[in-house]
Design goal:
By secondary structure, this protein is mainly beta. The chain is built from no helices and eleven strands. β9 and β10 form a beta hairpin.
């Protein structure tokens, strides 16, 4: 089992910044990748950024150049630095983990709300 807990959400004005944190615990040696997803009301959940064990990274086109995913392996933490925030970034942000040999993310946190005011 892998446990994930997000923190750092909140209310920010357009153009502002927030850093989300994902604390991971459990069977971490089985984890191949950790991703940040988000879901806005009425929308499907979408992947925002992903970081693999080898430190390779992918971003959604909508956040490239504004968001940065990083990890601190010693602290079992994954971060999402979000800059130049827009109202369209308003969503619940989830941290998710994929294990080796799996095709999808099978562990999820509870989510943290980000609200960007115009």
């Amino acid at each position: 089992q892998v446990q994930l807990e997000e923190s750092g959400g909140g209310l920010v004005q357009t153009g502002g910044s927030l850093t989300l944190s994902c604390e991971t615990s459990g069977r971490l040696f089985h984890v191949y990748a950790v991703a940040w997803y988000r879901q806005a009301p009425g929308n499907e959940r979408e992947m925002v950024a992903l970081i693999r064990r080898d430190d390779s990274i992918n971003y959604a086109d909508s956040v490239k150049g504004r968001f940065t995913i990083s990890k601190d392996t010693a602290k079992n933490m994954v971060y999402l630095q979000m800059n130049s925030l827009k109202p369209d970034d308003t969503a619940v942000y989830y941290c998710a983990a994929m294990e080796f040999g799996q095709s999808g993310f099978n562990y999820w946190g509870q989510g943290t709300q980000v609200f960007v005011s115009s």
